[in-house]
Amino acid sequence: MQTAQVIPFQFEALEVRTLLIDDQPWFCAADVCAVLGYAKG
Fold it and tell me: Is the pLDDT at 37 greater than 80, yes or no?
């Protein structure tokens, strides 16, 4: 099993963690929600 490497991605000066899994980008949902301004309700 291969370990995925976290790749930082900048979106509007905020960092979104990404991983490459089987050559496909996967984004950390918590980071995407924070960038978009979503919060727990």
Answer: yes
